[in-house]
Specification:
Number of strands: 15
Number of helices: 7
Largest sheet: 6 strands, mixed
Radius of gyration: 17 Å
Helix content: 25-40%
Strand content: 25-35%
């Protein structure tokens, strides 16, 4: 068994667990702490270090999924965290606190790695174009071609009808805007049809916490591309980050 520790940083919560990366399974409970406000680097890395302590992880690699473009370890965008993150080497910041080697990567890319290895995309690892979309505070995306990740795609920020796409179709809008299921589904359908015409994928995997209610909306979408719910759901970012920490980016 190869063990690693995965941390998934989100707009509302930071969670983590020990992971068996050979099986894609959590070896401990999933520890979760609300994301601090403001979501600045020092405060967030303090929480990440606290999660590592809760998991009694004192040696070995750490993978950290982060809701932004992370290029060669450096955070380049800050759509759902404080702008002070831009230009910060997030993995290095956590390593300074813990002494543990840390790889930080885009959160949707991490979730995509897990889904391609152990979830809904495993039959497309060697053949095809797979788009993984995570719907939550924002919209994250991961694109795989024949099993190879094209990192840091930001399809949640495509312009759609004059708006940033995630400001129209993210899952949080159901509560923030008090949208009915049908109203939200119509927005998601418009977004997915647009992105489908741009990429022509062979499979779309619908992820994020809301995917557990996929029976309410997937049958109502008007796509030509097969679309399926993610299988690892809220554990995908943790598992994918843990895999990348040991194996590197696919």
């Amino acid at each position: 068994m190869t063990e690693s520790f995965g941390i998934d940083i989100g707009g509302s919560g930071i969670k983590g667990a020990r992971v068996d990366i050979d099986r894609g399974e959590l070896l401990t409970e999933r520890f979760r702490i609300p994301t601090p406000r403001p979501a600045v680097p020092d405060a967030m890395m303090d929480v990440a270090a606290e999660i590592l302590a809760k998991g009694d992880w004192t040696e070995g690699r750490v993978g950290c999924a982060f809701p932004a473009v992370v290029q060669h370890g450096v955070v380049r965008t800050a759509a759902n965290v404080d702008e002070s993150w831009i230009g910060v080497g997030g993995g290095e910041l956590l390593t300074e606190r813990t002494g543990l080697p840390t790889l930080m990567m885009n959160d949707a890319d991490a979730a995509g790695i897990a889904e391609m290895r152990f979830g809904a995309g495993r039959d497309f690892v060697h053949d095809g174009v797979v788009l993984i979309l995570t719907f939550g505070t924002g919209i994250g995306s991961a694109l795989f071609v024949d099993g190879h990740l094209y990192p840091n795609t930001e399809f949640g920020h495509l312009e759609l009808d004059g708006h940033d796409a995630e400001s129209r179709a993210a899952a949080r809008l159901r509560e923030d805007k008090q949208l009915s299921w049908d109203e939200w589904i119509a927005r998601v359908d418009r977004y997915l049809n647009h992105i489908e015409d741009l990429l022509w994928p062979d499979l779309i995997i619908f992820g994020g916490g809301i995917s557990k209610k996929s029976d309410k909306f997937l049958p109502k979408l008007t796509l030509r591309t097969p679309i399926v719910p993610a299988e690892l759901r809220n554990n995908a970012g943790i598992v994918g980050a843990a895999i990348a920490a040991v194996e590197g980016m696919p």
